[in-house]
Input
Amino acid sequence: MIKILVILLLMICSMYAKEYQPISQIQASGIAKDMVLKDDKLYIGTDHGMLQVYDLKSKKFIKHIDIPKVKDFMGDEIFARVSSVDFYDGRYLLLSDSGKGGYANLWLHENNTTKQLLSAKDKRALVKARFIDKEHILLGYLGNEASLLDVNTKKERYRVQLSESKFSDFALNEDRSRAVFSCESGILYVIDTKTGKVIRELKGQNLDNVYKVDYKNHKVSAAGQDRRGSIYDVDSGKGEYIQGSFLIYATGLSPSARLVAFAMDEQNNISIYSVSTKSKIALLKGQKSTLNTIIFKDEETLFSSSDDKTIMQWKLK
Output
């Protein structure tokens, strides 16, 4: 009886979740394919062959990094899609398509100079890249392999096959010592980023492809093709899920992991839930395309990007 009452109470709370509109919009050079937030700056990778840096304090773009065009299958020059970006201690990272055989190009920009770390000749089917520290880059391969690249030698410290399933996404914890990898099986793998050792498998909540993950304060959230938004406690391995009404393409955790965001419906709205109670406390309305990234700046401010040029800022009040 008590359980039924709790469920009913949560349903009532969800029905009266407060609705919000974006407080500002940022127009990127092209479709935003990836976005990270560091020290009041957004680093945005676009399909227009560019990494753009947007300063949240001055409310303007302060830097952009262009990479060379590539040739499509017809031999025509087109903009390279920048699918993954990062920033660490003065260094910018860009992962882009090469236009050749599904292999990627990896670029490092520092002191106004861009150099290429990997090209199509290296035959790396890479999907995502992030700095672990200034000298090392964590790579996610299409075949669900994790590897650590040494920037100076351009050699991998390790390459680990996590499973036979297709890779989807990975996310780092706050000090970049651990990462959680997702794939089409629904199983999540938490690894030590320095060694590649699998620390824990998180499973049971998603039964299909997990498009996106986030990792904050010992919690992991996962956005599932099976319409489940899952939340795991990394230390215990225990998890729960929230049922959505459509494929869930994006998720984000607040810094404290007190709040979780999921793209829960076909209207591209963002639902904000309390992690402890699983009750919906807010609904963010206004995104016009399929969401791909949700980032909390703090417990009240977040940013989102989708398959268009518009990045939106939201404020929970």
